[in-house]
Each structure stands twice: as structure tokens, then as C-alpha cells.
Amino acid sequence: MVFDILFLLAVVALGWGFALATYRLFAYRYAWPMGELQSDTPLVPVLLGLFAMVIAILFAAARSEHGGWWIVAAGLLWAFFWLGFMRVGSQISLFLAPLATLLLVLGWIGIRTPQDLANMTRRMTYGTETVRPAASEPDPFARRTGTPPGTGRREDPEFIRR
């Protein structure tokens, strides 16, 4: 079973960001309690929430070919659940939204595109077991065997002794 953790991080980052950015509006309207940060300096939670939402939407746009817009739909559902049922729990979004956004960004940075993976792979010719490193990498066997890269190593007497 395939489990896409970046999808889930983007959903919760969008949801918690939306909840964080709009909590003050709902709190005034429905007389919900507000934390000190949201009542005294409301710009900080709104900016944190907007930042989380922007990163999640950018991630959704990058995945738009593979159903990335489900992130927006699921994120908004998560935000409505978080605001509607959790109410005071939305205060914890001050910690959860930046944390989810940070993890999403770190995971997104670590993603390799298929072209990157193709450039990084080593080609192996099964008949002679020749390993050719990528052009940017030094040959790991050149120092040990003394043979130039791309030559057959099975026939090398020094290689056979080891």
C-alpha cells in the first residue's frame, strides 16, 4: 500500500493555516475564547496561517497533474472540521501549522524528479558487470583497482585477488 506523507502534510498545513488565519474572525462572531497572541497581535497568527496555506497550495499546484488539487479540497474540509468541532483546539494551530509546513518543505526539497533519478543511476552491463558512475561522480573502483572507468574489471588480475 502506498502512503503519501507529503499529501497528508500538505492537507493539514492548509487546514491548520486556514484555521489559524481565520480563527479571530470566528472567535469574535461566536464569542469563542482567544489566546493572548491572537487577541493582542493578530497579525502574527494571520501571517503564519497565510504562509502555511501558500506553501500547501504551491505544493498542490506542483502536483496538479497527479490529483494535487485534492489537497485543497481535503485541506479546506480539515480546516472546517478543525474550526467547527475543535474551536479552542484551533489555538494549537499556532504550533501545528508551522510544524506541518516545515515538514512539508523539508520533504518537498527531498523529492527527486524522474529525470534526476535517471541521471543519478549507474548503468550496469550484466555480461561484464561494468559499473559506470554518473559523469559528476568519481569512479569508486578506479583507486582500488587502478583501472580506468568503464573497463572490464573481472579480467584484471589485481581485482581477482581481492
Structure, described:
The protein is mainly alpha-helical and 162 residues long. The protein has eight helices and two strands, in the order H-H-H-H-H-H-E-E-H-H. The chain has helices at 5-30, 36-40, 43-62, 69-86, 93-109, 114-120, 142-145, 157-161; strands at residues 123-125, 130-132. The longest helix has 26 residues, at 5-30. The two termini are 42 Å apart. Residues 122-129 have low confidence and may be disordered.
What are the salient characteristics of this protein?
162 residues, mainly alpha, two-stranded antiparallel sheet, 2 strands
Produce a short descriptive summary.
Helices cover 63% and strands 4% of the residues. With 162 residues, the protein is mainly α. It has 2 domains: 5-111, no CATH class; 121-161, no CATH class.
- Overall 3D geometry? elongated
Question: How many separate domains make up the residues?
Answer: 2
Distance between the termini: 42 Å
Order of helices and strands: HHHHHHEEHH
Number of helices: 8
Class of secondary structure makeup: mainly alpha
Unreliable sequence segments: 122-129
Give the strand content.
under 5%
Mean pLDDT value: 78
Radius of gyration from CA coordinates: 25 Å
Query: How are the strands of the biggest sheet laid out side by side?
Result: 1-2
Fraction in helix:
55-70%
Tell me the major beta sheet: 2 strands, antiparallel
* Tally of DSSP β-strands: 2
